[in-house]
Amino acid sequence: MEQNEFNPISGPIPPEKQELYDKIVKAIKTVYDPEIPVDIWELGLIYDIQITKENEVVVLMTLTAPNCPEAGGLPGEVEEAIKSVPEVKDAKVFITFDPPWDRSRMSDIARFELGLF
Questions:
Q1: What is the domain count for the chain?
Q2: E strands of the chain, at which residues?
Q3: Per-residue pLDDT tens for 83-99?
Q4: Residue 4 placed within a domain
Q5: Global pTM value
Q6: What's the Cα-to-Cα distance from 102 to each of 26, 46, 69, 75, rounded to whole Å?
């Protein structure tokens, strides 16, 4: 699937897509960084989620480091998790390192789990 196959809705999630968005986030929360016992949502690795009118999902995410050994596998795991949501027609994950990830992106839940308070 090419990036230009998607026509994402710009701006905030419309009310009619909010329930689907919540299901997508729940699916993403099932994916864990194998080196850190916290899901990738709470780690702050997801930068953006867009949903097309046809319920195709485009995700922009990062990794904890550019040389992360999971660079090849983690995006595929995220795609598969999103595709497990029945209403999702298709999903594509793109990786970026701009801005680079740092601990400030972590949720309070992640910080608590990792003892970083």
A1: 1
A2: 46-51, 56-61, 90-95
A3: 999 999 999 999 999 99
A4: no
A5: 0.85
A6: 23, 12, 17, 19
